[in-house]
Amino acid sequence: MTFMKILLINPPRTYFQGSKGVRLGLPLGLMYIAAVLEENGCAVKIFDSLISEKTEIIEKDNFLYHGVSEDYFKDVVSREEPALVGIGGPFSAQIHNAVRAADLVKQINPNIFVVIGGPHASVKGADFLKENKNIDAAVVGEGELAMLELAKAIKDKRSLKAISNVVYRFSDNQEREEKIFTNPWTVIKKIDELPLPAYHLMDMERYFFLSYDLSARPTKYNRSISMITSRGCPYNCVFCSIHLHMGRIWRFHSVEYVVNHIERVISDYKVKHISFEDDNFTFNPRRCERILDEVLTKKIKFSWDTPNGVRVDTLNEKLLKKMKKSGCQELIIGTESGSQEVLDKIINKNLRLENVFKIAQLCRKIKIKLRSFFVIGFPGETKKDIQKTIDFAFALYKEYRVRPNLMIATPLFGTRLYEISQKENFLVKNITSKDLALATQARGFGLIETSDFTPEDLKKFARELEAKISRLDLIRKLSNPKEYFKILKLIFKKPDRVIHYLKRILN
Fold this sequence. Notes:
Distance between the termini: 65 Å
CATH topology of the largest domain: TIM Barrel
Low-confidence stretches: none
Number of strands: 18
CATH architecture of the largest domain: Alpha-Beta Barrel
Largest sheet: 7 strands, mixed
Radius of gyration: 24 Å
Number of helices: 19
Structural class: alpha/beta
Shape: globular
CATH class of the largest domain: Alpha Beta
Mean pLDDT: 89
Number of domains: 2
């Protein structure tokens, strides 16, 4: 029975000069929440401002705006007349847009109960509500069950005190003072009990149409979606914030659940490619292998990749061969550093560098495209350590064509990296969402400075690696006569791109 109108909002985004630009992905968190609410009788809708018919991508003062106008946003909320609004805030770098969405909702009707979820709200908690008076509550961690209990309590006009994973404001009538209360945080242990995401509440065809040109990933696939088959991360890398939002307990969907999910999206939405966005897709190699076995046994045809990365120590030749056979197009591994000492003592990543070369060799042999994440600029890291990472990344590319994704260490709120940098006065400034938006890009400007390096030093290292790879690519192209026509065509059709490419080589 329908008992409450709820509107879930994926707010606009801004991309500052120097960032990768507009990227689009499904709002999976909102879709899971919507499925649970709908299953329990709520009248729920998703308003994705990034794929609306009124969506615009416009250039303003040194940034790109992707979303709808504020007037249209308010029209939508007014028309839906929700009692409860949930706003997604998946990135600290974009949290200002979620906050602005909350402000607009309250302008329409101050009685609408407004909730924001995501990692930023999870980390900031009570401080987040203190800073933003138009937000009534924040969901800490997973939102499916918390949002359902919130909806029930609001409808019945009950206290929110018994609801896990919620930070909320309330007025003490006796003291006439507004207070903020933080409830305990738990994780959903049996995630198989969750329904599949509410794809039917999304305009999937419009999403597919727009995502081909605005893909969240650098490789374009036709009719591509993201899928998450497990949650949580038990590891303790200094820069990672995943456990702050999803917890340290690794929880997973059963093989049957995952394969059913794959079959459903292929059957109902003609999906051709799936990006498995688990933070630990291969955490249990045997489970991963059983999923692939079912895919192969049932002859399910689709391509897939792992954009969030997998651990090298979970891979072996048998598993890699099944990955290739089942449709794997690309794997990304998290190497992070080319210095074993930095991995062991600074990043706290349990990884042996010699194993990276072994897996790279196997992927080259099996013909699985491989990329690797690297991060430079940690407190305690020296220029010599950073040079080791540059040299290791280049050697990996030269020998096995493993293209590096080099990033500058970003002190995300709540991480040990942030705490260390703040305590030791390594932060170059008070961090804003704009700073994070720029710093988290591949060519971002660092927010950490120590006696060993400056942000400009890190940029130089990044340019060095980029130049070395560009020179190697050019040599390889020139040594292949089949590439000559493509090069000439590019020179005549896109001279600006050629000039930019040459500048990188001559860096």
